[in-house]
């Protein structure tokens, strides 16, 4: 089973990435930042984790307020560097451990955490600022994979400190019940004290930062009793993002061993780092087996329902490209291009030959078997002038006439707007 080997805490201010990209490693003003990460780099080189589960918040780069979730887990195979306005930093994409991600989502949902998931989104300085000083990359790849957990801390209401801590406890169950023998390190990012907006801009509180680090190590429950207003008062409005560190702390044992800690306040944001190691036994095999059973209980027996295919994260991953193409048909311009030159549009799309064939042939049942979701087939049908009952008939291997005979009313309909609209 998977093992949590320990945890890292790190600020994620873009200051860190700027200093690295500008080769400021020996500049007296910047050198303390890089010196603080040397023990962490050594620890990572010694422990060699297979996966870093990185807890961060996006800075309105890849996640806008049209859909803003409390907890959103990446389930992709790869994550690129996001463009934050001046072009992406010169670093390669990092691989994602998609199988572990899918397992974690299922486990957290089992534990009553209503998770969102994401794919095909770049990661901003919340991930890549600390990652770029935690380990080297060779320009093509990184030495480990990640699972990114995005916490929505910028638009209120946001999760409480206690909710973050409880998520960490559930996250521990999720990781330790994963069947593969892999080593996982938890990385919490953000903080410490800072405020970047309003007349209070530039606020810092070094004594509070020291108290927070002490409580995080020795009495995290005390930190769960603080409100968002408490965190803003003590550490600045943006500094209240340190509640994300409680996700990491909740995933560790009650007693931890701190083997490194640093603190430096160069300008706007207090930069802190730490390493914690567990002092608890891992999940037993019987406990893991029980948890896996609970994870599977909601869909237990569904495979016996003939012709029924639950749209799981695994199916979503398999059908991602074809679903993404079909989803693009909600754009009027793309529909016009598709109508004008279907073969050319399919040839230019990021699709496999099999996916192109399924779409070209309007193989409705084949698309479902492949991993398409029905509600995107409706989009293609609307464009093609095919009514919904014709899709239903194809699913059952019947003609439209045969299918209609099984209905109380022989009506025809679809999702297309009225002609001329």
From TrEMBL:
<dbReference type="InterPro" id="IPR011986">
    <property type="entry name" value="Xdiol_dOase_LigA"/>
</dbReference>
<keyword id="KW-0223">Dioxygenase</keyword>
<dbReference type="GO" id="GO:0036238">
    <property type="term" value="F:gallate dioxygenase activity"/>
</dbReference>
<dbReference type="Pfam" id="PF07746">
    <property type="entry name" value="LigA"/>
</dbReference>
<keyword id="KW-0560">Oxidoreductase</keyword>
<feature type="domain" description="Extradiol ring-cleavage dioxygenase class III enzyme subunit B">
    <location>
        <begin position="7"/>
        <end position="267"/>
    </location>
</feature>
<dbReference type="InterPro" id="IPR034939">
    <property type="entry name" value="Gallate_Doxase_N"/>
</dbReference>
<dbReference type="GO" id="GO:0008198">
    <property type="term" value="F:ferrous iron binding"/>
</dbReference>
<feature type="domain" description="Extradiol ring-cleavage dioxygenase LigAB LigA subunit">
    <location>
        <begin position="323"/>
        <end position="408"/>
    </location>
</feature>
<protein>
    <submittedName>
        <fullName>Gallate dioxygenase</fullName>
        <ecNumber>1.13.11.57</ecNumber>
    </submittedName>
</protein>
<dbReference type="InterPro" id="IPR004183">
    <property type="entry name" value="Xdiol_dOase_suB"/>
</dbReference>
<dbReference type="Pfam" id="PF02900">
    <property type="entry name" value="LigB"/>
</dbReference>
<dbReference type="InterPro" id="IPR036622">
    <property type="entry name" value="LigA_sf"/>
</dbReference>
